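Format notes (please read before filing issues)

Several people have asked whether sequences and structure tokens are stored in separate files. They are not. Every record keeps both together, in the order shown below: the sequence lines, then the token lines. Line labels are part of the format and must not be stripped during preprocessing.
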Amino acid sequence: MELFDVYSLFNVNVVSGKGCHVYDEKGQEYLDLYGGHAVISVGHAHPDYVKAISEQVAKLGFYSNSVINTLQVELAHLLGKTCGYDDYSLFLINSGAEANENAIKLASFHNGRKKVLAFHHSFHGRTTAAARVTDNPKFSPAAYMGFEVEFVDLNDIAAVREKLATKEFSSVIIEGIQGVGGIQIPNDQFMRDLRQACDDTETVLILDEIQSGYGRSGKFFAHQYAGIKADLISVAKGIGNGLPMSGMLISPKFKAVPGQLGTTFGGNHLACAAAISVLNIMNKENLIENAAKVGAHLLDELKGFKGIKEVRGRGLMIGLEFEEPIKEIRSNLLYEQKVFTGVAGQHTIRLLPPLCLSMAQADEFLTRFEKVLKK
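Then the structure lines:
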């Protein structure tokens, strides 16, 4: 049997990692400015993380949600305290797409409406509802087309109000910062107006913080820059530092109905041990503050680089847009300068490093990046 060939692969076999570096089978070191799609939050192979999951799997890796799991309770309390949503509830699942699926489902259960409003250039996942609210028809086969979704431009509050005035929409789903869309940041005033528009029309506001959450923006959630609260928040990526896990934070306005939501693997013992460890490390090492500080330094320095059309971002979620396609730049960064970066479309490089990136490592990236741009 062969692998189903759907990925465009770089010719690098990563076999280990430590902090903000990864290593191939020959021992070559690479500076990781991508964190495996923003997944590595506290660094590769952090000793506290390794200890926590090793001890847990030696005791019990999994049992179903038919029994008490005190690790879930501990995680919910710690997450609520850390992110400022301690009066919300937590539902644990496995992936970002699944978190968004459940958020869309719960919103529709809540108000009985069918439509969802989303934004152009959005990305919310590849499963049924998540793919339909993603602004890319390539992700939605004919079987998904019955799900009713409409799209408007990001930051166009007039268009949002016009749509929501019909009271046909169960929810609005928006990313804290659009990631795949090229690190596009919703205007803070737009976010406040969006919150009000949802309140006025009894529409559920879903914040997709899968990529932009968990401290990446320099706040726990990117939407907290606008000083608002969402009704439902989806989280994944950095929650488990590489161990598959996701969650949905749920406003007190929603009442739990037994059997309405469910999962086999979500919230298992091993995943919870990983997630608890991640939050403890983030708090102990002040990684959110570090993301804000190091990210601000990178943004400031990168804006002075010649050849970049626009630099966008908050914290350690940064987009570098070029006039020309960036395939060669990214390839040279990887193969010549030994730096992993991401991409958003053909013209934008994405930087999503572990939140423990140091100032020295940021400066090392800047040095290597400048060498590529000067070629």
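For reference, the curators noted about this record: The domain at 48-284 is CATH 3.40.640.10 (Aspartate Aminotransferase; domain 2). DSSP finds eleven helices and 15 strands in the chain.
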